[in-house]
Design brief:
The structure is a homodimer. Chain A has about 425 residues and is α+β, with helices and mostly antiparallel strands. The first copy, chain A, contains 18 helices and 16 strands. Chain A has 2 domains: about 250 residues, 3-Layer(aba) Sandwich (Dna Topoisomerase Vi A Subunit, Chain: A, domain 2); about 140 residues, Orthogonal Bundle (Arc Repressor Mutant, subunit A). In chain A, the strands form 5 sheets. The first copy, chain A, has a 6-stranded mixed sheet with strand order 9-6-12-11-13-14.
């Protein structure tokens, strides 16, 4: 065993400051009191957010919903009966395809997300402009029918390879696949075409995936890979008080190894950087079923905020599916620009922002989801004025476990989220 | 329920060909007979490969081994006692650091891997050339001591952030960290500095990770994330006959969803592209403990082979650690260039190789690990002569489940690996 391990030396000024911060942290119940209040608020919200239909907007809008395999089979068949009827009426072979262009998108403040307006395009077979697309649409409808019938899931790449001769390149099959989702009024994952997942989860959560009982409190340090097919996830149960959404896997690993969730009951989820569709759907599902708050831990830079915006607002080109992909009410816990001074992050751990960073920061300041929250505006202004950024790992300069033992407990205790 | 689902139409020529191939597949026992032979061979191998020491090479060589936290603490303290003794002798403050440069590397055919020769460099404190590096080395030794004492794991990035002022950029702390691993004669993961993992695993495997019992047969479709710290993995148990190493997550998902491992007892592992250190260590550990063959399923392109070479040979800059990172005896199951004709992969699923691809292919042809296996040389020659490549997903052109229901069973039945 180590012979030097027991030796003590007097603390320096920096170490004394860390110790003083650490002493502020009270017992677990007191740390969790603020979270508990937030949690009660979340539980009091209506069981589900309003749907587009319930809003009775003057303008007709379109959104997709999750449908099970049988419902999708019915939709595919219905769309082909419609086409057949049109042919029999002598009006020819043509699809009605909802437009997904920016001109057909609309921000709905009541829902706090973007939806599609109801404009549709014709896709007739007997037209040189649309002939190929009509054929591809038919083929994709056929493939989706096969997938739903066999109850199997594939990736977009697999779909492309079933008929390379027709699709020519993957962009074409991907694009028509999104069209088909809109046409059938269901999410892309309902079509049994899924994204490959990058995310991992640990903490106070159990669920069944394809029948297997998964206990995320017993998943070691590596965690459970996020399920690629959320329709195979059932029986979600948890005694967590909040979901901790973490940008990076290094921070995830620290919290998983320290079993942070044992002391502070939570579910820890990361997409390891830019969030993929599977992780976004999974987060949304957890939030809806458990109705507990989501607290985010991201880098104090424009990219960290961009990641939050993807979770909260989604991306433009999948706006028709925003209700299933977005979790609007995420709280920004840290690392926030104001934390750098508050926690005395050393100068050398603060990185200068590039011109590109500053531009991105300024663009974010103009976005609706930031402007809707004055506290976010203040933080972003600190960032673009001070022109410095910092990673979550900057907290390691106070010791490897500062994140799990000091920073996060103090943040929770003080209810310091915005 | 679907109304069109039951309708039948006559098969076309392509479908008849697929059906004919499918009919070749016999019962599970017959499919597995060849694998069983390979498995017996693997079990008959000596319990562990020869070590460098047992070879009694004329030239002194150096390799690192996995050590537990207490052993690393002892090594750190011993290295500092050595330095202290040197100071007391009036010979000054200096470290002996093994050289990791190409000139100090050597291929050992008996081990089939690269190791370090025994050249060392001096790193004196009282020299303007090495002063900074000597200080950084001391700091890293101190940090490693702390990690092993606290029994916690961090990433290289965390390590860098503990003293940004000193390290200046992460390359410097990363580089010295590798030096320290060589100095102490242990792997980098023994220093409790780990890589973030990307890999996932499913199949006939149970193990404990940090005490948690993990059953990879009950991990849904998403699978279990590969543990980042292999030293927390214990009690590895399996009734699998082989490990199926898969390049891409799309193929992994197909096999996981089809529960391929239920019919053909195996462990399915993927690093989702370029293999990370954690997945390589995990594969090596599985292979050593279970002593079952490893069959690889990669794209039929030079990049797929590059990935195999990383699993088998490792990378040059971590050659001191090759014994813990490499799994030399991987069998190339598919997709092989000769499969394209054998399985009648349609022309449009065969992609033209770029000039860069062809160059990479030709470079691989000259590498020792390829030349050691004439069957591999023949396959690579087919690739660079035909100038076409194909992805695993090209098999989807015969149907989404062709991979799991036809291609792999037939390959296994025929013992068609090289």
């Amino acid at each position: 065993m180590s012979k030097l391990a027991g030796k003590k030396r007097p603390l320096d000024a920096g170490e004394k400051a860390i110790l003083a911060t650490k002493k502020k942290i009270k017992g677990t119940d007191e740390v969790l009191a603020q979270v508990d209040k937030l949690c009660s608020l979340a539980k009091k919200e209506p069981a589900r957010a309003k749907t587009l239909a319930e809003l009775h907007l003057p303008q007709a809008c379109r959104e997709v919903i999750e449908k099970d395999a049988d419902a999708v089979l019915d939709e595919v068949e219905a769309s082909l009966y419609t086409v057949a009827a049109s042919i029999l009426r002598g009006e020819g072979f043509s699809y009605d395809v909802p437009l997904r262009t920016k001109g057909n998108q609309m921000y709905v403040p009541e829902l706090d997300r973007i939806v599609l307006k109801d404009a549709c395009g014709q896709r007739p077979f007997a037209n040189t402009q649309t002939n190929r697309k009509a054929v591809i649409t038919t083929r994709v409808l056929g493939l989706v029918h096969e997938l739903c019938r066999k109850r199997i899931h594939v990736t977009k790449r697999d779909l492309f390879y079933t008929d390379v001769k027709l699709f020519q390149d993957q962009l074409q099959s991907d694009n028509v696949l999104e069209d088909v989702a809109c046409m059938l009024g269901c999410t892309r994952s309902s079509l049994h075409v899924v994204a490959s997942e990058k995310g991992v989860v640990v903490g106070r959560l159990t669920f069944r995936e394809d029948g297997d009982l998964i206990n995320c409190q017993r998943m070691g340090v590596g965690g459970k890979a996020v399920p690629p097919n959320v329709d195979k996830v059932t029986e979600i149960r948890s005694d967590a008080m909040f979901i901790l959404l973490v940008e990076k896997d290094a921070a995830f690993m620290r919290l998983a190894e320290d079993r942070f969730y044992n002391t502070y009951p939570c579910i820890i989820l990361t997409a390891k950087g830019q969030p993929d569709v599977a992780t976004r759907i999974f987060l949304k599902r957890l939030r809806d079923v458990l109705r507990i708050p989501v607290l985010a831990l991201v880098d104090a830079d424009p990219y960290g905020l961009k990641i939050l915006s993807v979770y909260m607002k989604g991306s433009m080109n999948m706006s028709y599916d925003s209700s299933n992909l977005t979790t609007p009410d995420i709280k920004w816990l840290g690392v926030r620009p104001s934390d750098l001074d508050r926690f005395n992050i050393p100068e050398q751990c603060r990185l200068p922002m590039t011109d590109e960073d500053i531009k991105t920061g300024k663009r974010l300041l103009e976005e609706e989801f930031v402007q809707a929250n004055p506290a976010w505006v203040r933080e972003l202004e600190i960032m673009v004025t001070s022109k410095v950024k910092a990673e979550i790992q900057a907290l390691s300069s106070f010791g490897f476990q500062y994140l799990s033992q000091v920073y996060l407990p103090l943040k929770l205790q003080e209810g310091d989220w915005i």
